[in-house]
Amino acid sequence: MPTSSRKNTPPTFGPLVPLPGSERPAPAATKSSLANSNESINVTIRLRRRQSINTLVNQSAAVAQPLNRSDYARQYGASPADMRLVVAYAAANGLTVVLKSTARRTVLVRGTVAQLSKAFGVTLNIYRLADGSTVRGRKGPVMVPDNLVASIEGVFGLDNRPQARAHFQIYNPGDAQGIANPRAVAASFTPPQLAKLYNYPTDRTGKGQTIAIIELGGGFRQADITAYFKSIGLKAPSVKAVLVDGGKNAPSNANGADGEVMLDIEVAGGIAPGANIVVYFAPNTDQGFLDAITTALHDARNKPSVISISWGSAEKSWTPQALNSFNQAFQSAAALGVTICAAAGDTGSDDSVGDKLAHVDFPASSPFVLACGGTKLLTTTNGTAISTETVWHESNTSATGGGISDVFDKPDYQAKASVPPSVNDGKRVGRGVPDVAAVADPATGYVVRVDGQNLVIGGTSAVAPLMAGLVALINEQRSQPVGFIHPKIYATPTVFRDVTQGDNITVTNSKGYSATTGWDACTGLGVADGQKLASLLTTVA
């Protein structure tokens, strides 16, 4: 620990050493110059927990009595001692403390590139990406004082390269490259139509619940929301924006991230129109993504009971410190009774990596996240009943994600799920992805409105807000948040309709996974019967 000779003497800090898990390669781009030493940037310092949370939240049982946010902060937030030491280190390096949060275990500091480079022992360069844009990047580890290394879980924001992709696809029947392929639309659905087909509760609207949506770009226009919900015969839900780390509600056009934002809002709101929807906008960096999640999770004003995440990328694109900090945030969500729903990816077993190995998407691969895979849904002629539902796989660039995690071990709740070994080595049996599925094929996609246009959009990004809306209905019915549902649903898989046809094999050497009876790495347990799932989860243990 840092020491001082007298009570009021500032603490002293030891030599800089690598922060475990902070190593990262240089961006896959052309280095053009050193970063401007006088540029001011914000950096998030994430601290360790005051005490382990594993006795309250583990992978074998649901949390019987979730904590309220103030009790969580007091018991499992950052310790005041760690907070004081980090603040002192910031002051010693001329950095300004912008924000401190015990619950988020976060100290946000601001300084120049020169000050931050010295404080964390890094060299920051400017890199030019293939699209002509530039990013600030680093390579190697972040350095911290040896007597602070045990107190700091991660340092984010020195590097601002893009971290995640939005998992949505606009249906384009003329696109021969595979976004739905040049086929006629077999069907398209509004959220209320899917709620009927999937047997969702009909006597609830999500009233009293808040659905948080994480967005790393794009924006929404109230006029679109009003027009869309009028067109499907529902009262528009309350939608508001919370801006994190300089993120903005910045709508542009339907071909950009607005498609993701509007899809998320309209699907979640179309299932639970009585719920409040709060959209947390942040920059598309590991810092912005993490800060948006922790802001939503510990938002004592809006109090989300479910968080929908439609952005992600393959596990190998994340630093170990990011994987750890995100996963710990999701474990905190379980302690607070907040359900996390995340898209499993839209390019099959390859997950847009291209190294001839199978990959899974993160954050969907976290054991504390409800990973949402995709199907292709066909109905009877009159559209009132399901005809067939198979794995979504239209092409190598239009297929559900899923597979075996390279990072997270197989959780206890999947002990009886017949999770197979990874196709990469035939040996590792890790966390199986996804947990659940629903329609995601753009050719049988969701009717939405984006920037004044009526479109059909698919992708597993639609499944995350669909499940979030269902969770909001169940939370209203239960009068208590369901939170971490994995142990219950894996113990009672009969509340899901099994999907047994299709595969997500998109790796060039045929590495991937096929649907089978029971859990599989394409559609998980299957498609939820909403009424059955509600009945299971409203039985309070």
How does this model look, in words?
Residues 1-11 have a biased composition (Polar residues). Residues 188-540 form the Peptidase S53 domain. GO terms for molecular function: metal ion binding; serine-type endopeptidase activity; tripeptidyl-peptidase activity. Keywords: Calcium, Hydrolase, Metal-binding, Protease, Serine protease, Zymogen. With 541 residues, the chain is α+β, with helices and mostly antiparallel strands. The relative contact order is 0.14. A hairpin with a 6-residue loop joins strand 19 (370-379) and strand 20 (386-391). The strands form 9 sheets. Strands 12, 13, 14, 15, 17, 19, 20 and 25 form an 8-stranded mixed beta sheet that branches. The protein has a 4-stranded antiparallel beta sheet with strand order 4-5-3-9, sandwiched between helices. A 3-stranded antiparallel beta sheet has the order 2-6-7, with no helix packed on it. The protein folds into 2 domains: 16-156, no CATH class; 165-537, Rossmann fold (3-Layer(aba) Sandwich). The protein has 11 helices and 29 strands. Helix 6 (258-271) runs parallel beside helix 9, helix 7 (286-297) runs parallel beside helix 8 (320-336) and helix 9 (460-478) packs across helix 11.
In short:
This protein has 541 residues and is of the alpha+beta class. The protein is 23% helix and 25% strand. Helix 6 links the parallel strand 13 and strand 14.
